[in-house]
């Protein structure tokens, strides 16, 4: 099985907090990360005609045909982590418009609530292999 690639907002303090957590929780080493302004993300978006600025979301990509953004990306990540994390997939039973609405509230206010770094911080050396940049 190929790695699940997660494209995230590199300068976002909130996003970096969760990327660090995901690195720790990814016991099966299934996740890879790249910031939304990386060449990997730009190429990915270009091939799929996705406007990354308008999207304002993380993207999870299984490297085959499937990719997801907003709340569905979170569900894709939880599913890939497996184990007890699948318990939280119960939220996926809610309609997409509700889960995406909640996601957008957080995404649209993340800089105000949590702050923004001037650039994407370097990952912990133990997890460098998980980053495509």
Anisotropy-based shape: globular
Specify Rg, calculated over alpha carbons. Answer: 14 Å
Strand order of the largest sheet: 2-1-3-4
Number of helices: 5
Oligomer: single chain
Compute the average pLDDT: 92
Question: Helicity level, as a percent range?
Answer: 40-55%
Main β-sheet: number of strands, strand sense, barrel status? 4 strands, mixed
Low-pLDDT regions: none
> Can you tell me the number of structural domains?
1
Task: Report how far apart the termini are.
Answer: 21 Å
Report the sheet-strand fraction.
5-15%
Helix/strand/pairing class, anyone? alpha+beta
Order of secondary-structure elements: EHEHHEEHH
User: Got a strand count?
Assistant: 4
Characterise this structure.
The protein is α+β, with helices and mostly antiparallel strands and 133 residues long. The protein has one domain (4-130). It is built from five helices and four strands. A four-stranded mixed beta sheet has the order 2-1-3-4, covered by helices on one side. The model has no long low-confidence stretch (mean pLDDT 92).
Outline of the structure:
It contains 5 helices and 4 strands, in the order βαβααββαα. With 133 residues, the protein is an alpha+beta fold.
């Amino acid at each position: 099985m190929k790695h699940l690639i997660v494209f995230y907002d590199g300068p976002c303090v909130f996003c970096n907090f969760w990327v660090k957590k995901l690195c720790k929780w990814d016991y099966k080493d299934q996740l890879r990360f790249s910031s939304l302004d990386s060449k990997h993300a730009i190429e990915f978006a270009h091939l799929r005609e996705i406007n990354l600025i308008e999207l304002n979301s993380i993207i999870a990509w299984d490297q085959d045909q499937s990719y997801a953004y907003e709340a569905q990306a979170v569900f894709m990540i939880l599913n890939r982590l497996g184990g007890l994390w699948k318990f939280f997939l119960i939220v996926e039973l809610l309609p997409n418009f509700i889960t995406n609405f909640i996601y957008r509230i957080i995404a649209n206010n993340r800089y105000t609530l949590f702050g923004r770094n001037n650039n994407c911080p370097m990952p912990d050396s133990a997890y460098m292999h998980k980053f495509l940049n």
